[in-house]
């Protein structure tokens, strides 16, 4: 990944003094996971640009388990970290531009204290939440923002856009502010960090956010994401941040983890659904359970409370979600006996995977509607043909019930990531077809309040061999 910073006020080569990096001398710095190279692609009186290139060694990453899920597996070797602007870049910035970030300059102190015409370009910045959020974060800081997006694959436009962007910002700012803005906002946009986020992270946020974070309209979002949505850290940081500034209004509250089924949550449907799953699992005497698309681990934490469940495995396609599950389950602090019963790994239910085999039961709760409909066939094979547990529990929203959600317009789905929602007839036809193809029996349960005409909010199929 490349970060460039351009200064356009003659003599522009003063940038070298401000950054303590001589324009005529390329330099390389050794970091714990690779190298940072500094050089100046242009250095004239009118325009001077410094480039910071980070060369991360993917093998080092995997060996040191830095930035890895800690569970091993393919993720350690196949991930975007060597190629994108991430917390590795922030760490490199503080290492290489540390003095400039603190606002000090031996040779040009007056320039260091002044707002200067500066531009920065961050290449391949992963951004959760789409392009709009980049504007929301940089524009209130006074930048003109230009964003270049990419297709996931130009040959397959139907796959849509990628989450990577090249971001250019331009404004009249102090160099130290520019550097600190970028330092903080890169991991905020990326939402990942390659190291454990603990209390010292609050100090870093407040130090690099000094003078600007308190006035930023998105300070809740920034604080929430920077501290990886750890509630206790966020609350502490927020308290310290606003200590001097008096009252906070509601809107400033930190951004808390979003709940996928916000619409349903009010009805406490989630608990009813998971309660039913546990009851069914007990009724078939399942000891070894795999929860595919486990999300933040709600079901896992319920199963863990019951000693009957000897082996509980959670799988999710999302690395972020698994990290949150680990946090929520407090995996690192569980007593050995409990810890041994849980296993979490990253995987997808549309790819055949040996690790899905050997369980008495598989649960796929509120997941299939997140798959593109044309991937369902692959999912069916992976689970019912190859993994083939004795019992499979699948749940999904019942579309007919959506008329009860007053905030949904006709045709809306309950969550923006749902690719489809089915009526009872559609679900039952699909499930009966699957059961027939793979030799299972299936029965159906309704979960939540039952409406005579429209059925219940959640529908569940219980498949048994
Ligand atoms: N089962 C959980 C979470 C439901 S949200 C619960 O009931 O609370 C849907 C989850 O499915 C998300 O965490 C999402 O990351 C995951 N998911 C989506 N596609 C997936 C796939 N192909 N393989 C595995 N998990 C997937």
From TrEMBL:
Entry-linked Pfam families: Hen1_L, Methyltransf_12
Names of required cofactors: Mg(2+)
CDD domains linked: AdoMet_MTases
Keywords attached to this entry: Magnesium, Metal-binding, Methyltransferase, RNA-binding, RNA-mediated gene silencing, S-adenosyl-L-methionine, Transferase
Gene3D superfamilies associated with the record: Hen1, N-terminal domain (3.30.1610.20), Vaccinia Virus protein VP39 (3.40.50.150)
Gene Ontology terms, MF aspect: metal ion binding; RNA binding; small RNA 2'-O-methyltransferase activity
Domain Hen1 N-terminal intervals: 1-241
Known EC number: 2.1.1.386
Domain Methyltransferase type residue range list: 290-382
Enzyme class: transferase
Reactions it catalyzes: small RNA 3'-end nucleotide + S-adenosyl-L-methionine = small RNA 3'-end 2'-O-methylnucleotide + S-adenosyl-L-homocysteine + H(+)
A biological process term (GO) from this entry: regulatory ncRNA-mediated gene silencing
Stated family: Belongs to the methyltransferase superfamily. HEN1 family.
Name of the protein in question: Small RNA 2'-O-methyltransferase
Organism: Acetivibrio mesophilus
